[in-house]
Amino acid sequence: MKTSSLTLTCISALAAGLLLLTSCAAVSDEPAPDIALPSPTTEDLAVSEEKVSPEFFCTEPASQPDLLRGEAVEASLESDQASLAVINYTSCPTESIISWSLAASDMMVSRKSNVLVFLYPLGDFTGDSLQYLSGADFNKHDVVMSLEDQEALLGDIELWLRADGCVDEEFFDPTSNRGDEFAMWRDWVEQGADASTMRFLCPTTKVVAMGITPQMVEEGELELKLFLTHELYHAFQQDLEIEGKCRELSEDRTTANTPWMNEGGAHYFASFITGVVRPDGLVNSGEATEDQRIRMEILREALRVYEDETPELHESGPDKKGAAALLLMIDKGLITHEEIMDGSFFTDCKREFLYPASSPEIQDIRDSWYQIVGTDGRYEFSN
C-alpha cells in the first residue's frame, strides 16, 4: 500500500478563507448518480481516537449542532491536491468523524476529489418513504432540526460549494434546469429523509450526505463509522463517471459489473477498515484472527441476502453480495485485497474493461459467489 503524506490544517468552513483547491466546469445537466455505504494490518487501520462506549458516543439527536461543525480539513497527498470538509449538525463528535474520514482517505493510493460530508439529525421513522427523480428512495423521519439550524446547514453547504468552484449560480436556483440537485438536498433536510448517499457534482467535487437516525445512534460508534466509510469510498472511487464505452457498459444493470463491484467494493473496504463483526453465531476472537472474522462476517451477510433474495448480483443487496463476490475473485487470484483497499482497482473502468461481464472468469463468479456454507460459526466458500 502506498502511504500518503498528509498535511492537515483545520479551518472554519464559515470563514472567508475557506480554501479554493480545485475548479472545474459547471455541474452537468445529467442527474447526479445516487451511490447509496482484508486489512493490511490492524495497526495500519487503527484510528487514534479513544474508543467510546456506544451509549455515550452520540447522544440523542439534538437541535444544537456540534461546536466543531463546519471544520474543513485540508489533505495534501503527494502530487494530488484534495480537500475534505465535514459539516456536522448532529451530536456525534466531529473530531471522530474527521479522524475516520482521514484514516479512510489515507488508505487511497491517490485522491483527486474535494469531498464534503454533511450530517444532520433525524427523529423517529414515520412509516413513509420519500422518492426523488434521481432514483434516490429514503425513509421519512420526524424532523428534529429547528428551521434556523436547517437554514444554517444549507447555508454552510452553499458556502463550501461556492468556494470550491464546481457549480455556478444556477445550481442554487430551484427554478433553473440545474437547481434540482440542491433543491433535493434541501428537501432531505426539511422533510427528514434518512439520506445515505454520495453525489457526484464534478470530476473533482463530490458530496456525501448522511441523515443520522436514532437507530443509528443506538447501534453505536462502529456502525456509524461503517456507514460513513462506505459512502466515503464511493467519493474516493475515480472512475464512476467516465464517459464513452465505460458508461455504456455500466448502464446495462443486468450484465454490467458496475453495480455490484462498486457497491461491493465500498462494503468490503468499510468492513475491513472498521472491523465490524457481529459476534452472535460467529467464532470468537480466540478461534480466528480479526481479518478471518471480518471475512466470515462478509460471507455470512452475503449468505443471508442470498437466502432472502436472489442470486443475481445486481439485484437486492448488491453491496453485501458484491463484497462476497470480490472475496471470491481474490481467492481465485483475479484481483488483490490491496487493490480494493487502496482504491486502485476503481480507476480506468477496470471493472468493465479488464473483466468484461461476458468473460468466463466473471461468469464463474456470478454462478458461484453464493456457494457459502456456515459450520460451527465459520463461514467459507464451499469450493
Describe the structure in your own words.
The chain has 383 residues and is of the alpha+beta class. The protein folds into two domains: 8-236, no CATH class; 245-381, no CATH class. 39% of the residues lie in helices and 17% in strands. The protein has 14 helices and ten strands. It has helices at 42-45, 54-57, 94-107, 147-164, 180-191, 214-219, 221-236, 245-250, 258-274, 290-308, 318-331, 337-341, 350-353, 360-368; strands at residues 8-12, 71-77, 80-88, 114-121, 125-131, 137-141, 196-202, 205-212, 372-375, 378-381. Strands 1-2-3-4-8-7 form a six-stranded mixed beta sheet, with helices on both faces. Strand 3 (80-88), helix 3 and strand 4 form a beta-alpha-beta unit. Helix 7 packs across helix 9. The protein is globular. The two termini are 30 Å apart. The model is unreliable at 1-56 and 60-79 (pLDDT under 50).
SSE order and pairing:
Elements: E1 8-12, H1 42-45, H2 54-57, E2 71-77, E3 80-88, H3 94-107, E4 114-121, E5 125-131, E6 137-141, H4 147-164, H5 180-191, E7 196-202, E8 205-212, H6 214-219, H7 221-236, H8 245-250, H9 258-274, H10 290-308, H11 318-331, H12 337-341, H13 350-353, H14 360-368, E9 372-375, E10 378-381
Parallel strand pairs: 3-4, 4-8
Antiparallel strand pairs: 1-2, 2-3, 5-6, 7-8, 9-10
